[in-house]
């Protein structure tokens, strides 16, 4: 991580001449960012789909005049419709965008757009305009140390690069360039350049449904307004002479069959304010009225007035809870010369943990910090509770709620997946969805298939539906 920060600072203070001197910067940043993508989002484990995506990508790259990198293509385990490129030729498409794509032409256009971002080094150029984030101002010396070091170790993996590199906001000129050169590249590979217009339109509608906000045109928006993009793409595609190439898959959307839809339960999920993690096999209850979030390396909660917080993460399972606690205590004493209010073994249900508590009166009000280490099924859980005296009861109640999943809880866990089915004679989306017990309503199924809601489907049409199935 220090290496990545070094390169960001180097880029920040360099002149634009640096961009034209060497692509080694792209390669180094790309290798670092690839690690962060894998840690933060996760690469989706679906071999046949991964091979399919790579085959399309390599076909596109073969039509670049001078490929700068050894391009890699991956499916990201993220339900949000998106595709992105990081420096050095790392191209990613999310599960979310795959779920709304209806043809290989659309997929190729999306991937070509991202290839151009990497090929034209847009991420590196955009970094020159970024601002290094300010350090957090923390209330109280001990609170500051615990948040900066202990909570920081839990949270830094997803925070370190997401604001600068992973999902970098390109300038509108970069987006226009990638649109125009991307559809040109797709056409050279034998794909319909106008397919970019249909996926952009569907993507815009999908995001409107997700955000419940209609896309607006704004001068200060980095991303171009979709109707403007469609107009520009139309002008470009009208000038292209292209011939259709044989598709890598002749039965699209069959490659998407069994693709996970929506949140991945394997990463843990909230059911109201109860956090359930089927892989780590535990459940944890946050207070009902708290704001909660599920991060790649932790699960966190904070009360409404932001005076109390809970962080649940993992620690070194090769050490005992007491050893980790004593290391923590030595670190606090070294920097603050303060001894804990409490330091001893603490039993949680059937598990023996080690609890350390401090009072911090160095800030504007007294705060209490409770840190618990507990080994459960060979996983070292670390729970940090921070808040005033008034919040102690709720903090304690949550900590005491952690337990191994029961069989009843496991049997209730479900997942949503894409199933590709064939329509029967006279099928509408209503009849198709009812017959296959679709999780989504027929109008949304029509949307992700790029068709009108009231369409009558020709017999044998391959249609994506979403079904709910047991997780285990």
A few lines on this structure:
By secondary structure, the protein is an alpha+beta fold. It has helices at 2-12, 17-21, 24-40, 47-61, 95-100, 104-119, 122-127, 141-166, 172-188, 195-211, 226-237, 321-336, 392-399, 407-412, 429-435, 442-448; strands spanning 72-76, 83-86, 90-94, 260-261, 269-271, 274-277, 282-285, 291-295, 298-302, 309-315, 342-348, 351-360, 367-376, 379-387, 403-404, 414-422, 462-470. It has three domains: 2-130 and 168-251, no CATH class; 268-410, Protein Transport Mog1p, Chain A (3-Layer(aba) Sandwich); 413-470, Membrane-bound Lytic Murein Transglycosylase D, Chain A (Roll), CATH 3.10.350.
Give a verbal description of the structure:
- The chain is α+β, with helices and mostly antiparallel strands and 472 residues long.
- The chain folds into three domains: 2-130 and 168-251, no CATH class; 268-410, 3-Layer(aba) Sandwich (Protein Transport Mog1p, Chain A), CATH 3.40.1000.10; 413-470, Membrane-bound Lytic Murein Transglycosylase D, Chain A (Roll), CATH 3.10.350.
- Helices cover 41% and strands 21% of the residues.
- The chain is built from 16 helices and 17 strands.
- The protein has helices spanning 2-12, 17-21, 24-40, 47-61, 95-100, 104-119, 122-127, 141-166, 172-188, 195-211, 226-237, 321-336, 392-399, 407-412, 429-435, 442-448, and strands at residues 72-76, 83-86, 90-94, 260-261, 269-271, 274-277, 282-285, 291-295, 298-302, 309-315, 342-348, 351-360, 367-376, 379-387, 403-404, 414-422, 462-470.
- The strands form four sheets. A seven-stranded antiparallel sheet has the order 8-9-10-14-13-12-11, sandwiched between helices. Strands 5-6-7-15 form a four-stranded antiparallel sheet.
- Strand 2 and strand 3 (90-94) form a beta hairpin.
- Helix 4 packs across helix 6 and helix 15 crosses helix 16 (442-448).
- The chain is globular.
